[in-house]
Design goal:
Layout (H helix, E strand, L loop, with lengths): L4 E4 L3 H9 L4 E4 L5 H6 L7 E4 L9 E4 L2 E5 L4 H6 L1 H6 L1 H8 L4 H6 L2 H7 L6 H7 L3 E4 L3 E3 H4 E3 L2 E2 L7 E7 L3 E8 L6 E10 L2 E7 L6 E2 L1 H9 L3 H5 L16 H17 L1
Parallel strand pairs: 1-3, 2-3
Antiparallel strand pairs: 4-5, 5-10, 6-7, 6-10, 8-9, 11-12, 12-13, 13-14
């Protein structure tokens, strides 16, 4: 690594103050992505503002038909929450597939969403469930939040405080994991919401995206058979040593079918 100033925030206001007073600061939630990035010197901030002491940003509750998960809640807590398991079991399942036990016990939902890694799992749930991302400044709709690879609608210094997930009529998530990292090579979250079916894909492209053709088919027939014949274009999909763009396109349909069956 290299030299930087380390700050441990005592409150949201304190975090904002420390961030604003630095030349080029970064917030650190669980640090599961940020610390490896710093070790590889892919990012060199002047200051780190650690959010680890902000207990008021931890917790899961129910509010008006929504499951509300605060930003510093770790993946393991989402996976094992009785409330999440009873209201949105697909979301609990998704949290249990993230990384390994170390990552699940340190990584946070807020950190994952703010980072917006192309292979992150949570963005697919946020988009498919039409969730709302709450920050210290405003509320951002799921379809407006994710803008591209590692890019979101967050302004400089804006801090995620929680996420509200509307409880769906039905939902499922399935991903095809990288054998080493366990990140989804392709992951698909399907949800039957009050406004119709929503299908969100992660891992396949530069950013989470929806599949309108599948959503239209599922609005007519909520079953794996409805999407079985839908082929997704490989244009602009990711391609690496783990999977070609064409293979990822094929996996979108396979994972959608499995998510619906689940």
């Amino acid at each position: 690594m290299y030299d930087f100033e380390y700050h441990r925030a005592a409150s949201v206001d304190d975090a904002k103050s420390k961030f604003g007073g630095a030349d080029d600061a970064r917030y650190m939630a669980g640090g599961m992505t940020l610390l490896p990035v710093l070790k590889q010197r892919l990012d060199q901030p002047s200051d780190l503002v650690d959010l680890g002491d902000l207990d008021d940003l931890r917790g899961i509750s129910e509010d008006g038909g929504n499951v509300v998960i605060k930003a510093m809640t770790v993946h393991h807590a989402v996976n094992t929450s009785d409330l999440v398991r009873s209201k949105i079991p697909a979301l609990a399942h998704l949290a249990g597939t993230i990384g390994d036990p170390m990552v699940r016990n340190r990584g946070t939902i807020g950190g994952s969403l703010a980072n917006n890694d192309p292979a992150a799992s949570y963005p697919s749930a946020v988009v498919a469930l039409n969730a709302a991302i709450h920050t210290d400044q405003r509320t951002i709709a799921a379809d407006d939040f994710f803008e591209g690879m590692f890019t979101t609608a967050l302004d400089e210094g804006e801090l995620i405080t929680g996420v509200s997930f509307p409880v769906p009529e039905a939902a499922g998530y399935m991903h095809f994991p990288n054998p080493a990292s366990r990140y989804p090579i392709v992951g698909v979250f399907v949800a039957k919401t009050a406004d119709g079916a929503r299908v969100a894909v992660t891992g396949a492209g530069a950013c989470v995206y929806r599949v309108p053709e599948m959503e239209e088919a599922l609005n007519a027939n909520w079953s794996p058979d409805a999407v079985a014949g839908i082929k997704v274009s490989a244009d602009d999909l990711n391609e690496d040593i783990h999977a070609s763009a064409e293979y990822r396109a094929h996996l979108v349909t396979v994972m959608a079918k499995r998510a619906l069956a689940a």
